[in-house]
Design brief:
By secondary structure, the chain is mostly helical. Helices cover about 80% and strands about 0% of the residues. It has one domain. The longest helix is centred in the middle third of the chain and has 29 residues, at about 60-85. It is globular and about 45 Å long.
């Protein structure tokens, strides 16, 4: 569905960007988890344990909840960027620069504020590199590309 200005309405863009960025990000997290010899199911339970600490011991239900939590957080990140891009058209014109900045912002919020406050630990140097890549390339660039429509 398009608006009178010719842009696609927010709902379809939010859904598409959430699906694309969310899938790329969770695939990267799964690959990194496997490379480190860990269980993807346990990684997903760890995601769920952010809002629900007991989810770590919930087995498959905790893993499913982790996937839902991941995509819910992604939908929030997507919605914020799309709302901003619709309000400030320069974010659509300079979408690559906007994506790089937004990826850095989401990295800082998640890895230097949310995760340390919830879990009490700061990321390692290698984690910072991989998380920056994921937040900028796999999350923010696809979000900004979809937001342009």
């Amino acid at each position: 569905m398009t608006t009178s200005a010719g842009e696609t309405s927010k709902g379809p863009r939010i859904a598409a960007a959430t699906a694309i960025a969310g899938t790329l990000d969770i695939l990267a997290a799964t690959i990194l988890t496997l490379v480190h010899g860990q269980s993807p199911a346990a990684m997903l339970r760890s995601v769920a344990s952010g809002p629900l600490p007991n989810a770590i011991g919930w087995g498959a239900a905790g893993s499913i909840l982790g996937l839902v939590t991941h995509f819910a957080l992604m939908a929030i990140m997507v919605s914020v960027f799309i709302a901003a891009a619709d309000r400030y058209p320069q974010l659509k014109r300079r979408w690559i620069s906007a994506a790089m900045a937004y990826g850095l912002i989401t990295f800082v919020v998640m890895n230097l504020i949310v995760v340390p406050l919830r879990f009490g630990s700061m990321p390692s140097a290698m984690s910072i590199v991989t998380q920056l890549f994921c937040h900028v390339v796999l999350v923010a660039l696809p979000i900004a590309a979809v937001a342009r429509r």
